Amino acid sequence: MKATVVAGLNRGARGVGLALGLPVLLFTAWWVFSADSTSIFLPPLSRIVEAFGQVWFSEVFVRDVLPSLRRLAAGYAAALLVGVGVGYLVGRWSVVRDLTSPILAYFRVLPAPVLIPVLLVAVGIGDATKLIVIAVGAVWPILLNTADGVRAVDEVQLDTAAAYRLRAWTRHGLILRAATPQVFAGARQALGISLIVMVVSEMLMSTDGLGFTVIRFQRTFAIPEMWSGVLLLGLLGFGLAKVFETIERRALRWHRGATGREESW
Amino acid sequence: MTTGSRTSAHTRRPAGPTVRRVLGILGLLLAAIGYEAVTRAVFSPLHVPPLTAIAPRAAELLTEARFWTATGRTLLVAAVGLLIALVAGIVVGFAVGSVPWLLRAASSTLDFLRPVPSIVLIPVLVLVLDVAQITVLLVAVSCFWIVLFQVLYGLRDVDQVAVDTARTIRLGRLGRIVHVTWPSVLPYLGTALRLIVSVALALAITGGLVMGAAGLGELIWSSQESGEFTGMYALVLLTGGVGIALDMAARLAERRLLHWHVATRREVAAR
């Protein structure tokens, strides 16, 4: 929904000014007001930016950032695969839905981070645990949204497909395609969750990774370095959301056309 | 070729409520039996205890004061954070959303800040606040974004004809907010309420896991550290129960709040 907020603003120089105005203002304000800060907890922004370059453009990137991103990608991909697959079954066949609905209702409200100690005990500390935790935390919104989307597919479309005697595979493809807006809504929610679970799992049980490194900086009172890590995590969250939006906009171009809905402020 | 797609029109007719309930219970039983079988066959009972060990422990915990104290603390933290988020989100949302140029100037900043996970603040805040305060703040920040964006969506959805009508009958600015804008935003706030309740619980528990803030999260983590694994599984099981109770409360509140709304009335009529 907010996908087009920035795009809409970019029309014309005034738009660019409006989009950049406040961020630039805030950044400048932070820079100026922190310039002669002597507080160890709030170092000058210039120090943080300097630390950012020193810390993250070094072997730390390979040692800590890449493993984090790899786990995130693998866990998220697994969640997508399982979530869409099982969600399809749940949405398509009412018997499956009735059988699973209490279980799904339970896991929908169970907070994902409590699974970290459980998997820690069940699987042990390791890459696999973190990956599974991310996948298990992220799978529910995808699964439930896919099920809703599949269930809400237009009856007329299904009957038309049946009347044309389309092959079963074609029809499954058709249903899945019609459900993509909901699948994407779930996948976006899951992206945020998987990032949070990744950071928390690294804070709790890791020897490498972004979350671990930030905590280590904090414990050793390397405050500018810690701030730079917080900044990097923020940028990562923002960047992932932007990449997701781009993919979503491309994948759902047909949908905006079909419904005549152009969402913008 | 599956039979399901051949007779799709028939299979998608929903079963009666009794049949569905029976199927649901059957599903739960099957899952419980499956879990029991897998844990007994594959895992060591110490690390992954079977349900027949977890369930009695959970029942035992329900009679212990420390479980209820922890639950109370978690709920209190979640509730305070939630309240802050609701008030702040509504105030900021109305302030920003009803001034077009302000909304345009702020939207890129809001877009940037929203996907930043609130837990990145933990290392920063640990230096200046105590863990309970930080947990409240984590809950508040995460829920704030949801409330804020729901209010903004709601304000965008206000019917222009209704606004013009209100103007015609000379309703003042306050009158328009009370009679036109607020009722249009309320359904969006209902949705927000349902969303933030589970987010609040999740972050209240995360605070306990990561920083040891008193509550369910801390209890779970300490039973893991002291090797009391069955107790930990039982606590996780009960945490889900707390989640279900909160979710039901939120849905009830939403229905109360929106008893006049078309969607609710239709839902009630369909029962």
From TrEMBL, chain A:
Its main location: membrane. Gene3D superfamilies: MetI-like (1.10.3720.10). It is found in: Cell membrane. The chain crosses the membrane at residues 12-33, 73-91, 103-125, 131-153, 226-244. Residues 83-243 form the ABC transmembrane type-1 domain. It is a multi-pass membrane protein. InterPro entries: MetI-like (IPR000515), MetI-like_sf (IPR035906). Keywords: Cell membrane, Membrane, Transmembrane, Transmembrane helix, Transport. This is Nitrate ABC transporter permease.
TrEMBL record, chain B:
Residues 71-250 form the ABC transmembrane type-1 domain. It is a multi-pass membrane protein. It holds the Pfam family BPD_transp_1. It comes from Micromonospora gifhornensis. Its main location: membrane. The lineage of its organism: Bacteria, Bacillati, Actinomycetota, Actinomycetes, Micromonosporales. Gene3D superfamilies: MetI-like. InterPro entries: MetI-like, MetI-like_sf. SUPFAM superfamilies: MetI-like. Belongs to the binding-protein-dependent transport system permease family. The chain crosses the membrane at residues 21-43, 75-103, 124-148, 195-221, 233-253. Keywords: Cell membrane, Membrane, Transmembrane, Transmembrane helix, Transport. The keyword Transmembrane helix applies. It is found in: Cell membrane. This is ABC transporter permease. PROSITE patterns: ABC_TM1.
